Amino acid sequence: MIGSFKIDHLRLKPGLYVSRRDEFGPTHLTTFDLRFKEPNNEPVMDQCVLHTFEHVGATFLRNHKEWGPRVVYFGPMGCRTGFYMILEGELNSEDILPLMREMCDWILAFNENPLPGQAAAQCGNWLEHNLDMAKWETRRYAQVLKNAGKENLNYPA
Predict the structure, then answer these.
(1) Residue 157: is its pLDDT beyond 80?
(2) What are phi and psi of 130, to 5 degrees?
(3) What's the Cα-to-Cα distance from 8 to each of 11, 13, 40, 66, 139, rounded to whole Å?
């Protein structure tokens, strides 16, 4: 069974978790679980919202002066309760909490139209976006990160 299926999703709260760590020779990768929704207990994010957050969040992360070169992947979970982010390095949730807070602030201030990559030649579903609702979900997640404690930074035992 893969590791993410071993997490008790009935006890999982919104937060920022280390999902896994991998080594490829001298390279260490850390996969983070950016959990926006309480699984099986609240409605999942709409596809338009996930898509918009993916475009805007990835733009922020990949262009970040310090962290951008370490971003391997950023994208939505199939269950639509959050996102996975893979960063180069052996990291903990506390290491990237400031980055995640900065990303939320950046998205909440974002007002470009069209969105980054929102063109038929750049995206396979370029019309499916909702920036207003992505900001709404971001506000909720920013509150989780602002008040993050052990229960929001470590998977339940």
Answers:
(1) no
(2) -155, 90
(3) 6, 10, 11, 34, 26
